[in-house]
Amino acid sequence: MRILLLILFAASGCSALIYEIVWFQLLTLAIGSTAVSLAILLAAFMGGLCLGSAGFARFAPRRNPLRIYAVLECGIAIFGLLVLAAMPLVGRIYIAVAAPGLPDMLLRGAIAAVCMLPPTILMGASLPAIVRWVDATQGTTPRGIAWWGLLYGGNTAGAVFGCLFAGFYLLRIYNTATATYVAAAINLVVALVSFRLPSGTSEPPPSSEPRPLGSGWPRPSSSFWPVYLTIALSGASALAAEVVWTRLLGMMLGATVYVFSVILAVFLTGLALGSAAGSWLVKRVQNPRLALAVSQLLLMLGIAWTAYMIADSLPYWNASPLLTAGPWLSFRLDLIRCFAAILPPTLLWGSSFPLACAAVASPGEDSGRVVGGIYAANTLGSIAGALAASLVLIPAIGTRQTERVLVATALLAAWVVLSRERSLPSRNRQGAVVTALMALSLPLAAGLMWRLHPIPGGIIAYGRRMASWNGTVLYTAEGINSSVAISQSTDGQTEVDVNGHVEATTEPYDMKLQRMVGHLPGVLHPHPRSVLGIGFGAGVSAGTFTRYPDIQRITICEIEPLIPPTSTRYFASQDYDVLHNPRTRIVYDDARHYVLTTPDKFDIIASDPLDVFVKGTAALYSVEYFEAVKAHLNPGGMFSLYVPLYETDETTIRSELATFFQAFPNGTIWANTVDGQGYDMVFLGQSEPLAIDLDRAQQRLDRPDYTPVAQSLREIGVNSVVDLLATYSGRGSDLAPWLLGAALNRDRDLRLQYLAGWGINSSMADSLYRQIIRYRRPPADIFTGSRDRLRALLYAMLPESVGTN
């Protein structure tokens, strides 16, 4: 029976992680993916777990625990399906009434609470419910308490499977609806089996197992507060560490959706194994409170170990196989590195839960109340730790100092229990042990904190390519959403790097692309007045619009407040100091969230986001997002989008093109080449068919008030309209045969982030470019003008066409 319940509870953990991943993906589409939005989602999810675990014992009857557990699982399935069905309506309501500032934050919190509190409250109640069956069969004995920890560990082990199952299969192959149906089916099977099992009674059998000597049972409840405080501090350090290390490892390994799944799976694996180890210790230690304190002292070493591995060891491992290997080999190597780095501290966090339960349990006490209280305290601490790390500590003091705070938190958690143990009457030997531990822990913690090193600047700048990249890091900083670096390559070019990936550079070919994002719609739109720039980067794309005399308003939406002032310090001449231009207004928000909630419309929307393989960026490449962009264009408006061909495979670029043309059937694509080789592209979309009068466009460039525009183009080697428009590479009708069967990226699946993450090691830029222009047809209905200028344009395009034959 116990083994069967362990399997059932593991299945429940699997479904819970599938729900969590699905709900976070769906809700971030509506309320944004800023640090504040993610903190609200995390607080709502874990807050429900806390409320469920704390309130269960107070309101649920003690009889028929497995019947109650079955009802909880049914309820989780029902609410999971309701959240999926109601999400479109919830998103529309939010978008309709969202307002900037504090009201919007409160509304985001309310939306998250309405969606996630009902099912997560039931999830939180499931552990206290199922341990009541153990209490009814084993009693509150060391053996019974060990099974509490095993159930907790089994649930976490199931969560590991759910994390990998959702990240590598359900959402990669199917979509959020299918993943939800699978999770609900698991809940219903667990409920059915649980309902048919013998439920047990509320009266525990007399224990024939002697409790460990010195365990101190029973104790007055007033002496339990140090244990609850310690387990809360342990939860705080665990979730804060997860925030810090996920951020650092994400930069190091490549911030794809798969890497984040691997990191979370390893973290949960450590918790599961640690809980199993703690359950084994419960039956053997004499004083579980002292064992809990020792685990926190050892945790200081574990935190320091992970900090050392991330800062001083892993960055210098030979990562060259990761840059050319297939995805499965890359993920296996990522898994090894994650295990090497974060397994030791997660084992100790996992062991803390059963030890804390043993430290407060007394014979005859309601096991549901004991487990619910410990779980609630741990979860409450986890909420505080995650919010503090993501919203306060990292942006204020950085990851290095935050790791030092984690060591200090572990020390404090140990001292809370040790101080209480020291004040209790005890034998001299135990008192001496407690005194020695407290005396030695202070210099140990100080030494560990002193030895912690910051993450190498090369990781922030070059990420997984650090070992193969020759350059000098000039500046680094860690913001609330992203880490930023300014670096200089060996040829003297400057670049801005975000989260381990190059965002923009002063290389001539990158400067051309960045300005093409602005100049293509700027030159082709007859009378642009207002512009929205998506992503600041180096500010070059947005800065091109300062050259246009008719543009009166430049709005730039940037998710990380650190980037605009940092980039401006190094790129002011290249971006024409757009940050301080009187026409410029910066909005710090998730781009998708801003586009969906702003009432403003624009003549031009120019988008230069992070590469699509970065987790979350695919939300800026979906059909629904492109439709929202189109709805925010004034009549005759234009939308330009940067799309890389490097680190991209054929499946990814076909999906990007098919999705773009689904929303913009009259769209066109324009290439940026390096020495004639394909490199990256600009997608250009508008509602109406594109019609370009070459003579009129050249006349505008020749006007005196357009002299700054012409100069900006000459700086990137474009001396005429013909030079700019010769980059034309095709349109949807040309590419229709090649795009047949390509996967569309929609909100319900965000398939593109899985496709792009799978092809991140590809080196197919020129091959993809050649395949695209092979389908290009003479655009006679797009370009008009004098015969000489049309002939010059076709001649400028001809060499690229010949190169495909």
Structure overview:
The chain has three domains: 1-146 and 159-202, Up-down Bundle (Growth Hormone, Chain: A), CATH 1.20.1250; 220-455, Growth Hormone, Chain: A (Up-down Bundle); 501-802, Rossmann fold (3-Layer(aba) Sandwich). It is of the alpha/beta class and 805 residues long. The radius of gyration is 29 Å and the shape is elongated. The strands form three sheets. The chain has an eight-stranded mixed sheet with strand order 7-6-5-8-9-11-10-13, with helices on both faces. The protein has a four-stranded antiparallel sheet with strand order 1-2-3-4. It has a two-stranded parallel ribbon with strand order 12-14. Helix 1 (2-31) packs antiparallel against helix 4 (102-138), helix 5 packs antiparallel against helix 11 and helix 7 packs antiparallel against helix 8 (257-282). The chain contains 27 helices and 14 strands. The N and C termini lie far apart (70 Å). Mean pLDDT is 89; it is low at 201-222 and 800-805. Strand 1 (471-478) and strand 2 form a beta hairpin.
